Amino acid sequence: MFASDRAEHPVVNVSWHDAEAYCRWAGKRLPTEAEFEYATRAGAQTIYWWGNFLTGTRQVANVADESARGHLPVIIAGYDDGAITTAPVGSYEANPFGLFDITGNVAEWVADWSDGFYYRKSPKRNPTGPSSGEVRMTRGGSWIDGSFGIRPTVRDGIAPTERGMKVGFRCAQDRPREPGVRGQHHEESKSQHEAWRNGSLGFFEWVAERVPLWGAGFITLLVPVWLWRLSEQDKHTRARRWNGHEISGRRRRRMSANTRGCAHASVEPRGRSSPSISSSPW
Question: What's the pTM?
Answer without folding.
Answer: 0.63
